[in-house]
Amino acid sequence: MRQYKDEHAQLEAGISRPLVLLLATTCGAAATAAPAAGRLADRGHGRLAMTGSILVLLASWGLLALGKSSVVALIAGIAALDLGLQATHISNQSAIYTLHGMCVPGAATAAIGLAAWLITEKAITGRLPIGADSAA
Asked: Which of 37, 66, 101, 133 fits 87 for a cystine, CB–CB 3.0-4.6 Å?
């Protein structure tokens, strides 16, 4: 059954196993750029890291558009997309972790809002939203 699924996927997508392996390797290589974005953000250049990662994402969309007619452009677009997304994620995490004192009050406010909503929902409808009954 597994062999059938692989052959079916290969026929549907029109790509071979070596190409799938190349795509996976490319994405793995793009993951090595995430620590560089983190180091840049940790040194106080978070805005530069974020701007660069967004520019890489924009470039990846252009490459992906060209990927309809070129496998090389498709692979480069996927690599750039992966690199840009990971760098953006790391840059955002660095920005959040620099807010030290802001996280706890923000989370507490969200928890109070959720509790108020649940109490109001229970008062109005007589029951809690689906899934909340087991937690409360």
From this structure: 37
